[in-house]
Structures are given as structure tokens and as C-alpha cells.
Amino acid sequence: MIEFRNVTKRYGSNIILQDLSFTIKTGEFVVLIGPSGCGKTTTLRTINRLIEPKTGTVFIDGKDVTKQNAVELRRQIGYVIQQIGLFPNMTVSQNISVVPKLLGYSKQECDTIVRDLLALVDMPYEENAQKYPSELSGGQQQRIGVLRALAASPPIVLMDEPFGALDPVTRDSLQEEVKRIQKKLKKTIVFVTHDMDEALRLADTIIFMDKGKILQMASPEEMLQHPASAGIKSFMGKHMDNDVPAAPLLAEDFMKKKVYKVYKSTKTLESIEMMSKRDINSLVVIDDDETYLGTVSIEDIKARGKAGRSIAELINTDIMTVGRKDDAKEALDKLLSSSSNYVVVLNDKRTVAGIITRTSTAKAMGEALWGDLSA
Ligand SMILES: Nc1ncnc2c1ncn2[C@@H]1O[C@H](COP(=O)(O)OP(=O)(O)OP(=O)(O)O)[C@@H](O)[C@H]1O
Ligand SMILES: [Mg+2]
């Protein structure tokens, strides 16, 4: 059992978690959902003490986590994040064995664990154990990330948007696998997502968060039947059996309007400076008449750019575009299926209206749930 009792966290004057109190039962699959910045990751990391709250206490099985050695605690709590960061110089087998090894398991015990776990996700030991991460697909790497978190059979596993970067098909199959593994091994899982479909599919209990507070904590069924607010209701609409029609969402509803643009005549150096100042790795390139041409990335400038020259010859046209009145679903599908971090939204005259990123998507979903978040 995990219990939050009056947990508050601030950074400076920003209150990130506001007096959070809730309990997660042993063996429960809990999904935290809410707009970007609402404190999901902070909540998760408070459990394994990567973050210490200012006031309040987290208890695991009745024990105050701060009374335990943080490193020991973390070895008993699996942790999976997006871009799990498998160790590239270790084989699959070595990656999975990291924690068991730290805990002093013998080589033979580690080997048994690796065999058993690989069997769980249908990746035969003989074929996979000695591979390096670079020899695996993104979905396979993420599977190994999940297995690594399970290796020392921790009773609790924390997962922070573990499948966010995967294509929809791989994501589906991993969701099923995780649910199956959780049931089979009876783990307590706390899982963060932006995706309501994922939440409804996986959760025994969903926790809706906004601005460091819980708006609703309920089973998926209960949330569908008794959403705590009109906003939640309209969002859940598409999942309900009755005839509440979901408002058609357009690409423009999900886009971020502030886009860093450069004219094609901009010099390479100036473009690099702009990107480093904003901490971004690409810019949208426009023609003299403001119409969209493509994007330019910091990697391309570094690899092929010449000092003193413009970025015109480095323009990349692979990034997908959508019209602002296009169906949002199409835009999101493009975002999820492409390897780039955003899609560009165009006005009728092919000028740039905005970009859709994962964060802008989450914000828009949050607003669909709870109304204007800036108000
Ligand atoms: N080290 C830090 N210093 C200052 N502010 C921070 C720090 N870490 C997080 N924050 C702020 O705390 C808030 C909550 O962050 P958190 O990462 O928990 O959000 P989140 O719900 O996980 O968001 P996302 O969905 O984008 O991952 C954000 O406003 C963030 O900017
Ligand atoms: Mg987060």
C-alpha cells in the first residue's frame, strides 16, 4: 500500500503539489493523468524519493519512506521512463540484470530471471539475450526497459509515460503486456500518461490531477458514469455508450501558436544561436512571402551547414503538415506515427498557423477536461 498524507511540494513560490492525500492499494493499477505540468512526474518521483516533499509524508506499507535508505528503497521500486535509457554498451541480459546484480544475486539467478522475463514478452532468450540495445526496435527496447524494472521483482513499479514515444500498434501491444504482467505478478503499478484511452484501458483507478491537486480519483467505469465535472464528461464522451456526441476537435484546437520561424535567407550561425537560446533543436523555415517551406535542424546545420551561408540548402521537408481545419485525430496520428517531435499546422494560404507537439496536445486535452487552464 502506498499512502500520500498531506504532501506538499514547492519550487520557490510555485506550489507543485498541494496537500495531496490518497491511498493506493497493494496490487492496484493506478493511472495518473492530467495536463502537462500538473505534477504527475513529481508525484511519482516522490514515491521513490527522487524528490523530497516539503511537508507531508509518503508511506509504503505503513513505513515513512524518508526513514529508509533512499538507494535501498529505489532498488525495491521499479522505475520505467520514456526513452528508458538502456545501457548501450550492455547486452539485453546485462541490462535486465542490473538491479539483481546490485542486490547480490548470483550469475545463475540473474540468468534465470532474464530467461523468465524474456519469455513473458515473447522475446526468446536464445535470440535476444546477447543483443545490444541498438540491435532492437524501439518497441523491443521499451519492453526491455519494463523487464529491467521488474527484474528484482519489486512489489511496486512506477512508470512515467513509458510508451509515449512508440507508434500506436506497438503501444497497444505493450499496454496489453504490461496489464497481463501486472495481473500475473500482482504488482502495484503507478503509471503516468497523457492518453485517456491508455488510462481507461489499464487503470483499476484513475487519478485526475490539475495544478498539483486531485480533481477526481475513481475507477474508469465510475469516471465514465459520474465524471466530476462537465469538462471531464465531454472528454469522456467518445468513450460512453450513450449518445453524448464528442465535439469535433480540429488541428487548431491542439496547436501551439508560438512558433519559432526563420526566413530561408537566415544565416546558419544566426539560426543556431536562435535555437540554443530557446533550447530547441529545430526551426520552421518560411519563404519571403511567409509561406511554409520546411524545417531546419541543429543537427543538419552542424553536419552540412557552411559558415556565412544561409539555411536555404538545408531545409528538410519530411516533417508532416496538416491544415488548421483538419480533423485533430489525423494530426495526432501523424504526430504519433512520425519520428519527429511535432507536426506543422498551416493556414489556407500555406502560412504557418502553429505546431502540434506532445505538450500542446496534453494542454489542449487538459482544457477539454477542465476548461481554460490559464484562467
Ligand atoms: N526542479 C524544478 N524546479 C522548478 N520547477 C520545477 C522543477 N521540476 C518541476 N518543476 C515544475 O513543477 C511542475 C510540475 O512538473 P511535473 O514534471 O511534475 O509535471 P508533469 O505533470 O509530469 O508534466 P508533463 O506531463 O509535462 O510531464 C511544472 O510546472 C514544472 O515546471
Ligand atoms: Mg511528467
Automatic annotation (TrEMBL):
Pfam families: ABC_tran, CBS. GO terms for cellular component: membrane. Residues 2-236 form the ABC transporter domain. Its EC number is 3.6.3.30. Keywords: ATP-binding, CBS domain, Hydrolase, Nucleotide-binding, Repeat, Transport. Residues 255-311, 315-373 form the CBS domain. InterPro entries: AAA+_ATPase, ABC_transporter-like_ATP-bd, ABC_transporter-like_CS, CBS_dom, CBS_dom_sf, Gly-betaine_transp_ATP-bd, P-loop_NTPase. It is an enzyme of class 3 (hydrolase). GO terms for molecular function: ATP binding; ATP hydrolysis activity. The keyword Ubl conjugation does not apply. SUPFAM superfamilies: CBS-domain pair, P-loop containing nucleoside triphosphate hydrolases. One of its GO terms (biological process) is glycine betaine transport. The keyword Transport applies. Belongs to the ABC transporter superfamily. This is Glycine betaine/L-proline ABC transporter, ATPase subunit. The lineage of its organism: Bacteria, Pseudomonadati, Spirochaetota, Spirochaetia, Spirochaetales.
